[in-house]
Amino acid sequence: MERRSPSVVAAVLAAAILAVAALTGTLWHEISPSVAGWGSFGWTALVAGRWWTAGTSLFLTRNPFMALTMATAVAGVLGAYERRAGSWRSLAVAGIGHLTGSVVTALGVGTLGRTWWPVGVRAAQNLDYGASMVVAAALGALASRSGDRRIIRLVGVGAVLVLVLHHQLSDWAHLVAIPTGYLADRARRPRRALAQLALTGLITAWLAVDGAQVVIQEANAVRFASASTSSAAALPLTATGPVTPVPRGKVVRLDYRSPALGQRTMVAWVYVPPAAASGRGGRLPVALFLHSVPGAPDDWLAGGDLPAQLDRALAAGSIVPTLAVIPDGAGTRSPLAGWRDVRRQHLLTSVRRDLLAAVGARFPTADLGPGRVAVIGVGRGAEGAARLSRSDPRVGYVAAIDPRTSVLPAPGVHLLVEPGQGDRRSGASRTWARWRVEVAPALQWLTDHGFGAGKSA
Questions:
Q1: Counting beta carbons within 10 angstroms of the beta carbon of residue 88, is it exposed (0 to 12), middle (13 to 18) or buried (19 or more)?
Q2: C or N: which end of the chain has fewer Cβ atoms within 10 Å?
């Protein structure tokens, strides 16, 4: 008679899911935005460096139905595998299946999102939580343990159809978790199983910590490959001779919680001028740079070469030392809406309320007085810049580069419009070159119209 192990791991995990559901209130109502924003996993969590949410997301559930059925599925499916394979192997299958499925899928949809395909953009912004990948991995391991091809086919087809009720990020995650559990069970010898699980764990850990940056860097290498050559050809030639080193500012990451976007942890990038970086200088004016939507801060940082542009402008005296803030338009459930506030997508409110407050808290010398803030937008970001000026009296300057629509800022706001070919993905390399040419005169225009001069009210 086959020896059966008690289902200790499955019982503890199911009980933990119910306990967390009771503590967070999801045993009685929908999960609150603050809990989901804090503990959920996904592409945006990886970009923000919150890799640890891959663990917290395992215990979260969306509502009472999900809490009860998920705990039941974990107890039933993982418990069935544990009785056949033992508690230690069951724990390994559950942990590796959940983590590998979560991380690989988050990086996959993040890669799709970097192509600016609207479906991929929306998928990359979804919040991921729940133990469905534990159940999927256990199903794959059970199929392996049975050795029956009919069961293997049934698991491969039926698991996704059943577990789709519990998963928010992408159904594709189960196509990662199921074979992960299957392969984890196939290594029957203890040493081989341990080595296989250790290797999988190390690769998954590396992907969780560095995977997002690898995706971003590789996507940038493809998207901006011809930008440097194109922009260099467009810039005027300079005289030969000794080149005076230009003092460089630094770009720092700013993580902040956004109640306007359901308590998500958002990321912005801030260029700190050389004088401020060294501790010299007084109040610093603030300029926001809004990318187009779909888009990313790297459109400015890498495509527009913004840090180097600001370094040169400061050295030439064409702009005063300025904090340049590049927010990320992540959280777009409807990319075609741009930076407009629409249902379940309050990007502009997030910038106005959450980001500027975070800038003021992180940089006490930031000048955020009425009429003191400039907003430079490109494509749909230009429309966002105009809309922000109509809702926030701190905005006194709007520069619109290649706007997609007409730009109508608030009365009394200084306006610069640089019309062009528009932000078309097919003409991306030409667009980056235009940005690199047009940013310098836009910065000079800000100075000519008094940006950063005098004291804030």
A1: middle
A2: N
Task: Report the candidate in 45, 41, 36, 55 with the shortest Cα–Cα distance to residue 95.
Answer: 55
DSSP for 193-243? HHHHHHHHHHHHHHHHHHHHHHHHHHHHHHHTTTHHHHHHHHSPP---SPP
Residue in this structure with the two tokens 């997030």, named with its chain if needed: 350
Which amino acid does the sequence have at 334?
S
Whether omega for the bond prior to residue 294 falls within 30 degrees of 0, making it cis, is yes
Tell me phi and psi for residue 397, to 5 degrees: -140, 135
Domains in the chain: how many in total? 2
**What pTM was computed for the model?**
0.77
Q: What is the CATH number of the domain that holds 185?
A: 1.20.1540.10
**pLDDT tens per residue across all 457 residues of the chain:** 345 667 889 999 999 999 999 999 999 999 888 888 888 898 888 888 888 898 999 999 989 999 999 999 999 989 989 998 888 888 988 988 889 888 988 888 888 877 777 777 777 877 888 888 898 888 888 888 877 666 656 655 555 565 455 444 455 677 788 888 888 888 777 777 778 778 888 888 888 888 888 888 887 777 776 655 544 444 444 444 555 677 889 999 999 988 888 888 888 999 999 875 544 557 899 999 998 877 888 888 888 889 999 999 998 888 999 999 999 876 666 666 778 877 767 888 999 999 999 999 999 999 999 999 999 988 888 888 999 999 999 999 999 888 877 778 888 888 888 776 544 443 444 466 667 778 888 899 999 999 987 654 4
Residues 336 and 371 in one domain: yes
Give the containing element (helix H, strand E) for 311: helix 306-316
Q: Answer whether residue 145 is part of any domain.
A: yes
Contact, 423 vs 431, CB < 8 A? yes
Residue appearing with tokens 């979804």: 126
Dist CA 211 CA 46 (whole Å): 8
Rg, Å, the chain Cα set: 26
Task: Give the separation between CA 230 and CA 225, rounded to whole angstroms.
Answer: 10
* Token pair 């500012």 in the structure block, residue: 249
Residue 373 contacts residue 395 (beta carbons within 8 Å)? yes
- Give helix then strand counts, H and E, for the chain: 20, 8
Q: Are 267 and 47 in contact (CB under 8 A)?
A: yes
**Interhelix angle 172-186/87-113, nearest 10 degrees:** 150
Amino acid in the structure at residue 79: G
Cα–Cα distance, 111 to 120 (Å, whole number)? 8
